[in-house]
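seq:
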Amino acid sequence: MGGPFGPGRKPMNHSARRLVFAALVAAAWSAYAWAVATPQIGQPVGAGGATPGQAKLGSFGFIGDTQLGDEIVDAAFRRLHEARVDFVLHLGDIVDNAASDDQWHAVLDKAGEYQLRLRPVVGNHDRLPDDRGEARFQEFFPELPGTFYDFHYRGLHFVMLNSERSLAPWSEQGKFLAERLGASGEPAIVCLHRPVFTCGRRDWGNQALRRVWLHGRLSETATALVLAGHHHYYDRTKPLDGITYVTSGGGSRKLYPAETPDATTAVFRSGVNHYGIVDVYADRLEVRVLDLEGETLDRFDVRLPYLTVAQSQRTIR
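struct:
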């Protein structure tokens, strides 16, 4: 006679159930990872110019990969000083050898000479063999709470991540990201050293993990722009699920050759040292990327939800 499982059928044993459950989890995970790795590609927003009657709220700069680029650093920092930016986002690899005090002082003393306030992220060259950047950041940036942190400026929320540490949701940094982005309704700019989206194939395996752990979460927030370094060229994506990704490793004396642009690429430039300046307005960011002579390599806008007067009056905090 047949039992509750029908004639001739036996109940599934525990091992079989575990296999079925594992298969379902793997299928769900694969579907999620595929969706994250293939975001909706939007159209870039051109540089629209100033809106009549709308004042600039402030400006900041960015540069990446200044290791062993003494004359390059001097030229770029001088240009950023002349632009009177309020601070400079350093996208990592400040130095080539984290153990060398001379290399740290070469960059940081130059920033001091030009009165530039650096807000850095950890690069793979900024860490000692037995840490993830903590030792040198504590020594040279004692005012920072750690190697991942956030701050606010003119109604913008800056989230500075350490790509040498895990970004998985259950990690310390993953929980930090969820807490800080979840608590802020301000438009966000996220910075880290290793890129999330770029047409370059270097470090591709880890890049794929960052797409899963980071992009999948940022696409659900008010993040508008992600800045990274690590690859010594300039690459800007089209908006991906509404987020523009920039790779800017323009401070290095060792520049990388050209890569083949893909469907996500808006602008790609290789073989030229560069830095960026971002002007903040109530409804947009105006981004300019310039070479060491001050010539424009790229210019684009990032649209923002309109900032309130109270938000726009906030200085760095």
